[in-house]
Amino acid sequence: MLARRMCRMALRLWMGQLLLLGLSCHFYSPSRGRLVHSRYLQVYKWLQMAIHLVMYWGYKDYSRGFFPKGTFHRQGFVLQVSDINVGLQLCSLVVQDILSVLYERRVCQLYNELAGILRKDLDQSRSRFYYWAFFVKFHNYLHNFNIVFSLLMISGIRTMSTEDYLAHIYYVYNLVARESVLFFYVLILLDLGEALRLNSDQEQETGSYEELRRQLRRQERLMGIGQEVHRIFGLHVATTIVLQLFFNTGSIYLGYAFFNHPPNAMEWNPRLQAARIITLLMSLVVKLSDCLLLQIVCEHLIKQENRICACPLTEGTRDSKAIQRQWEMSLLRRAIRRQSPPNKVLGLFRMDMRCAFALISSSLSYGIIIIQLGYVHI
Prior knowledge:
The chain is mainly alpha-helical and 378 residues long. The protein has helices at residues 2-21, 39-64, 75-120, 128-142, 148-154, 162-201, 209-260, 270-305, 320-339, 353-376; strands at 26-29, 34-37. Helix content is 76%, strand content 2%. It has a two-stranded antiparallel sheet with strand order 1-2. Strand 1 (26-29) and strand 2 (34-37) form a beta hairpin.
């Protein structure tokens, strides 16, 4: 009960933050029990999107002067890394806005349908995996408001100005807007996994053919919702993963530069250096754990999709042969689908745990490569 209340509280906090920042034109209606579209929120969202895009160009100019001239031995290389990172943020921003305009209403419709299935047909408590994954994702989401590492990067080098605070506010807004989409994506995947699990665990005690048919139809519909959700969010998730990959490599290089080649304008401060290294490691751990969590949730969803509905109890029933035949046909369809799955996670490839560890190792490998490039770059 406590986990359920905390989950609801976290969802209300997240939804309120979305409406305050103008990231959604839908609000949750407790009386209707569903997400409802609002024209006023839509106008507010379009206004926020326009302001967001206009402020990007000021943020881009600011990023080039984030580190004063002569800060690093290879200042030009650091500027190139920063420019690429800011450019990838623009790509992610454009993709997010386009997908939001095209598919937000459809995604909310799918979520309302899924919530209705869970509430009416499968009204049971969530599993431990659901709460564990939800709270880990919510913790990683709250970490987006942490700007300590960015402030420590310029601490001791130059004084903070109003532009610095405004740029950090814009950066947090940009990060929260991007991660809110991923939060909603993971939330839908968790609800899909729970719906498939509860549907598969239902036992046909009465041996009714109609009950089994409704159960199998519900299962096929849930899998159809999952495939459509993957297609909608695929491009945004892939763009975000590329951006996070480059951000991790750039952060590793900056941490290496601060540790081995302190900036010329900075006085050596062991405590400040230790704080930079600790916050850098915390940021990398959160980013990598977020990618790993996404893939664990996707793998869990695939596992639930491959589960077989409970065998019906057909002894002594009139239509026992029809029930048994329908159940065997569902097993045959499931075996065919397992050999060539129609759903592809992220819309690009089938995700498994090996891909998760490959993504983590590639992030670290690219960080080492970019450090080596800093040695030979002129």
